[in-house]
Amino acid sequence: MNPFSTIQDIKKALDRKECSPQDVVTFYRNRIKKHNPKLNSVLEAFDDVNVDAHDPHKPLSGIPFIPKDNICQTGRLTTAGSKILSNYKAPYDATVITRLQTNGAISIGRGNCDEFAMGSSGEYSAYGPTKNPWNLECVSGGSSSGPAAAVAAGLVPFALGTETGGSVRTPASFCNLVGMYPTYGHNSRYGIIALTSSTDQVGPFTHTVYDNALVMSALSGADSHDATSLQIKSQDYTKELDGKMPANLTIGVIKDALESEGVDHEVRAIFMQNLDQLKKLGVKIVTIDIPLLKYGIALYFIINRAEAASNLYRYDGSLYGMRNTSATDLFEMYKATRHDGFGAEPKRRILVGNYVLSAGHKDAYYNKANELRNMLRAEFEQAFKDVSLLVSPTTPMFAFKIGQFDQDPVAMYMADYFHVPNCIIGTPALSLQAGLSKNNLPVGMQFMGPRLSEQLIYKVAHAFQISTDHHLKTPHGYE
Asked: Which CATH number applies to 1-479?
């Protein structure tokens, strides 16, 4: 079996009875044992999974995967990459896990991640950083670092991440994968350990756009357990993937992608080559200016920290997770538990979040940020009156060295420049492979659309992908 087989390839092999679901699970489990020690992408591989006979009527029957470790799995440790939840076993499955299992998929582990999904690099896990299969000295991107690196190295054919502001698309870009951030409310958040509740969404990592659409089809649909879930029916996103671009399609290239000094010159050059490829496919490309885009990072910074501080308030040792047992009173127990349990990044965000929510600053920061959020949404809505989709580099840089931004975390936040804005307003975007640098590091390109435009995004991205060979390139040493 090819470790980089697509879900489609594995399904065909299972349908032809060339292998069994147990063979597939064993193959990938052995891949994890062989390669994970140098990657640290999988926190735990399960040896006790139930493997049923292949059911051709289930679209993901016999396909193994791993979810990010902030997605609950019944009876399994669910740490969110943090010491404070090091002993927490989830009492129920997240809805996205239930839906994948209903469709025949098999979870065989849990993926490493930045602590409570806080990070753009995968360096802030309490269990060590995830390394990039393309270059072990580089980050794999965060916060969904482990799931992305696992798919990139051929340890599983697909994985689930979560994204609040680039946490699926950054690792997809850095690891040469396809990663989707869906419309807010499209995928259930029930059973997801929250970071920024108003932007959190689950999205899949795959090698191909088709596979990504297949997994998203299984995840879609309203969920009565989640009040933020959109009242939409599940749908098959693969049905229109015929390899043809829609007729008379106009796509807007974000002006900052062409002019901003913050975009690496080689990233821009690769991006421009891909724009030329879109033109060859009959797409009309126009330049779109979104003036408020430059405030996206600052806007996200305020909203993210405020909601993170509120969501982390519950972790104090009184109900679940670790508890400091040497404290002499309740207040000291709270303080000692949070001091010992949280890493540096959550502490930074808690402090900033409490500051912007405080009585003297809430109007000046948090309320103003929400006003600006509405203004940014209006600018995107206006743009989508003129174009069907927007396109930009996924990130303005390539994967950077582990430790490169240890003393300057704000500089690292700039990796999210192009994908934070659509998370803030809750619109979908998909990152896919755009090529490799001279140093053999991947770069991604993303398509962004208006609310509930997933079907169009998949159709365009699929037609583009099969016209190139970017997705066929895999890291050396993992054959």
From this structure: 3.90.1300.10
